[in-house]
């Protein structure tokens, strides 16, 4: 799933390639991705893109005197830029193509979604805040006004485990499964530690890990073409998706805990006092 760093990089890429250009055609291929109907998709046509914004994991294309095109790529969605779009309209079918946006230059982009679980979402709205997911977002962890005191206030009284709290978009916007693993590894904390149990020193350590992990990921992704962002993300991860590999910090074996539709990775030595959590159903949650 694209998370804050990748969506930030896509925002920068699209700012360079879209701003100042006119949308001449928006072609839906998979109607299920469209989550709004007023304004219609056609309301975007004939309007110039004036800015591209990021709200958590949402991409927001703002047009002059027109609506916003807001996209959430979900787990398996992606954006593919094309300097020259194919001639003729795309054919509906069983392929991954969901939506095509064409510019007056002949360039544009496709939104695609792999797999059978279709969660890619596209909204055409008068204001990005009209999208329910955007309206519910918590603060952006890379915003200038997001400091340690504010972070501590968010965690105060939070009875959930750290893994779940970090992934809650209404608590902190933009962190998903992969970067929550990376943040907790950098902070040397168990994913199952209760957020409300953190000491001031632990809160400070987690805040630093949160900011540093995301900032470094954004810097790695900056200037990377849209088509290479997935590979760039994977190359920078230290524990997520690396089950069975040695931890780059201590050399212990990275372990995994599986859930119904996802999994987490962690290092026992760095995060759980050397005690592995072999299976969520049979292992005791380490605090």
What does this structure look like?
The protein has helices at 4-18, 132-135, 148-155, 162-167, 177-187, 200-221, 229-236, 268-271; strands at 22-28, 47-55, 58-63, 68-72, 77-82, 97-103, 108-113, 121-125, 255-258, 263-266. It is α+β, with helices and mostly antiparallel strands and 287 residues long. The strands form two sheets. It has an eight-stranded antiparallel β-sheet with strand order 5-7-6-1-2-3-4-8. It has a two-stranded antiparallel ribbon with strand order 9-10. Strand 6 (97-103) and strand 7 form a beta hairpin. Helix 1 (4-18) runs parallel beside helix 6 (200-221) and helix 5 packs across helix 6 (200-221). The protein is elongated and about 60 Å long. The relative contact order is 0.14. Mean pLDDT is 93; it is low at 281-287.
SSE inventory with pairings:
Blueprint: H1 4-18, E1 22-28, E2 47-55, E3 58-63, E4 68-72, E5 77-82, E6 97-103, E7 108-113, E8 121-125, H2 132-135, H3 148-155, H4 162-167, H5 177-187, H6 200-221, H7 229-236, E9 255-258, E10 263-266, H8 268-271
Antiparallel strand pairs: 1-2, 1-6, 2-3, 3-4, 4-8, 5-7, 6-7, 9-10
